[in-house]
Amino acid sequence: MISVIDLRVGYGAEPLFKPLNAQWNAGEIVGIAAPNGFGKTTLLHVLGGDSEPKLSGSVKIDGCEDPDDPKFRRNVAYVSGGGALLTPNASVHENLAMAKELWGSTADLEALEQDCGIESFSGKRVADLSQGMRQQASLAAGFATGASTLLLDEPTNALDPNNVERFSALLRRHCDQGGCVVLSSHLLDNLAAICTQILVFRDGMPACVALEASGPTPKELYWKAYGEKGGTEPL
Length: 235
Fold this sequence. Notes:
The chain is about 35% helix and about 20% strand. By secondary structure, the protein is of the alpha/beta class. A hairpin with a 2-residue loop joins strand 8 (about 195-200) and strand 9 (about 205-210). Helix 3 (about 90-105) packs parallel to helix 5.
């Protein structure tokens, strides 16, 4: 579970958006939908414990607020896009093993590699992989941590449609097993397929909207928040 109270983030004195208040429970997949420059990545960093861009407010992961507390670190994992957090000269399997060890996870790496469709290149160096393969490996490393809360920055970037479906199913399974996911994406149709809530920023004001069959889609929410008429129509 993630509890956010009066959170302001930014670099310098000016926050990127107005205070965010939210509670995201086990089983939730929350999609952050916003144009570039609205603070999606910065927010994910702060949710993961980065104090530098945190101006004020609090973030609790499973009841723990101190980012230096082992419980906080064990229960949250941030995964950037494009494999930026992977060790380039290590193999994919070695990267997964490092993630498992650092988080004290009990993940079955062989089963995980099969689930993620990376077993055919798990022995290759990350530096030798295509962009899409690095993205698959990054997501697999996130699962290898065993963290209940996953923070994913553009997780479907560079993935082909088959792998978008594969990892969407894995995220749903993670949440069905008691996990929580917050992710950013420009792929609004994918957000519609997997998310339970969408976070948008209208005139700098965060608004988290539950996705329901009779309610607006992520695409409709996006254009209401950021389109030419943004701010004039109810979300």
